[in-house]
Design brief:
Chain lengths: ~240, ~260
């Protein structure tokens, strides 16, 4: 099971909201340099899966391994320090800090993959190249930029931590098509730089642009897993599990 | 017949012109989509028409009379309904009670019938729920409903005061693709039957292109384009500031047959 190439291994992940069980023995993996889409309808468990990996669910069981190391008992900040970046759906931009200051907050030391290869090292200049919109507003406060710009800032802030794997919760929701496209380009760039990505997504066109594999959830369980290209062809899965 | 006339509407916040001289009209039974990048001023426009914000300049005429600067409840009483990006219903009340409450408010007997809300205007409420396809869930608490169903209840509530104009902020946000199309098909049918004028915002371009009669595009507070789906899709400036190349949304589905 311990595939040396997998950066994230999730086994039998189960989680509860209060007494209601919402994830059921979820098992999935993300390979190095791979982008995986968590798909499914509202309430299927996409965001909950991401939160459970990040130890943000009060009650959960199962095993989560990151770079071969069991992180199931670590706290969220400890997980983040190991190089697992998290971009929350509600963005959580610091509204009183400027764009540049928001980036500063995310800064962490350079990092290496388990095999000793250095992880991509991000600088403000590099991130402004990745997200040109942000370059023109370094001194604007986080609360005064638009939703799409905040989404880009949140991703950039996470990258300042030089992560090995990035978790993105609904990166395309509620933002303009042109920004969605820019976000897709940026994620493709991350993959080229050697990062792994696990994202939750309802927009299948976006997922197709950036993801190698898909993991489709329904009622807190994995119902379908396979190559993104296969999912694009399988209209019966799309109809049954994605309400297409 | 023109229902809404928006004329040179402007609003600034701390020196930033959020909406800058915007003008447009909507006719009876017409669905007008207001699209544009995040931060373009769409919500500010909505809020000035709905009464949540007072315009700095310009006017809003509803059925020929100015409603600019009136409070939201007076605008609602004149016949302007509104639905929200994040659906707002009373979670602990049942579906039908939510609609009954809107009806009671519309008929101005909100405070005289506290003890008898559960009996008040039930047939009319039921009729509205039938129309939005939620009659079977009438006696369930709203908090038990799936999000797409809450949006349907919200539509029934919005129709309770027999509006002639509906303002809908992202009516299909947070819904799966098929739910989106079912919801907008329902909206289109109900408003066309009633001759209600609709102004809606939406980031789902397949919904906009298939269902809007006309589209207006807002960028940095000003209108940069107006026209039908084909004209907007081919507009180079709109592509640059908002639509992109189109690869992140589906080819437009033809409108479902009525």
């Amino acid at each position: 099971m311990n595939d040396a190439h997998d950066i994230l291994e999730v086994e039998n992940l189960t989680a509860w909201y209060g007494s209601a069980r919402v994830l059921f023995d979820l098992t999935l993996r993300v390979g190095r340099g791979e982008a995986v889409a968590l798909m499914g309808r509202n309430g299927a468990g996409k965001s909950t899966t991401i939160k459970a990996v990040m130890a943000l669910m009060a009650r959960r069981s199962g095993t989560v391994r990151f770079c071969g190391r069991d992180i199931s008992r670590l706290r969220p900040y400890e997980i983040a320090r190991l190089g697992l970046g998290f971009v929350p759906e509600d963005r959580r931009v610091f509204s009183d800090l400027t764009v540049a200051e928001n980036l500063d907050v995310g800064r962490q030391p350079p990092r290496q993959f388990p095999d000793g290869k250095p992880a991509p090292l991000w600088t403000e200049e590099g991130l402004y190249k990745l997200f040109p919109n942000l370059a023109g507003m370094v001194n604007r406060r986080g609360g005064q930029i638009s939703g799409g710009e905040q989404q880009m800032l949140t991703v950039a802030r996470t990258l300042m931590g030089n992560p090995l794997l990035v978790l993105l919760d609904e990166p395309s929701e509620g933002i303009a098509p042109v920004i969605v496209e820019r976000m897709a380009n940026a994620i493709s760039e991350l993959k080229k730089a050697g990062l792994s990505v696990l994202l939750s997504e309802q927009n299948i066109h976006f997922a197709e642009l950036v993801c190698d594999r898909a993991c489709v959830l329904e009622k807190g369980q994995v119902q379908w897993q396979g190559a993104m290209a296969e999912l694009m062809k399988d209209t019966s899965v799309q109809r049954a599990l994605l309400s297409m | 017949m023109t229902v809404l006339v928006v004329r040179d509407l402007s609003k600034s916040f701390g020196g930033v012109r959020a909406v800058d001289g915007v003008s447009f009209e909507i006719g009876r039974g017409e669905l007008l989509a207001l699209i544009g990048p995040n931060g373009a001023g769409k919500s500010t426009c909505f809020n000035m028409i709905g009464g949540q914000l007072r315009p700095d300049a310009g006017d809003v005429l509803f059925e020929g009379r100015s409603i600019a600067g009136l409070r939201p409840r007076y605008i609602w009483r004149r016949g302007v309904g509104r639905t929200f990006q994040i659906a707002a219903t009373f979670a602990s009340m049942t579906v039908i009670e939510n609609v009954q409450l809107a009806l009671a408010s519309h008929h101005r007997n909100l405070f005289g019938m506290v003890a008898s809300l559960s009996a008040s205007r039930r047939p009319k409420a039921k009729e509205l729920l039938v129309q939005v396809g939620m009659a079977d869930a009438a006696d369930r608490a709203c908090r038990e409903l799936a999000y797409g169903d809450i949006k349907r209840v919200e539509l029934a509530i919005a129709l309770a005061n027999d509006p002639r104009l509906l303002l809908m902020d992202e009516p299909t946000a947070g819904m799966a693709p098929r739910e989106r199309l079912e919801m907008i098909t329902l909206i289109k049918r109900l408003v066309t039957e009633r001759g209600v004028a609709v102004l809606f915002t939406e980031h789902s371009m397949d919904v906009v292109f298939a269902f809007a009669d006309r589209i207006i595009v807002l960028a940095r507070g000003a209108l940069i384009a107006a026209g039908d789906a084909a004209a907007i899709r081919d507009n180079a400036q709109v592509q640059e500031v908002y639509l992109g190349t189109g690869k992140t949304y589906a080819a437009p589905a033809p409108p479902a047959p009525p």
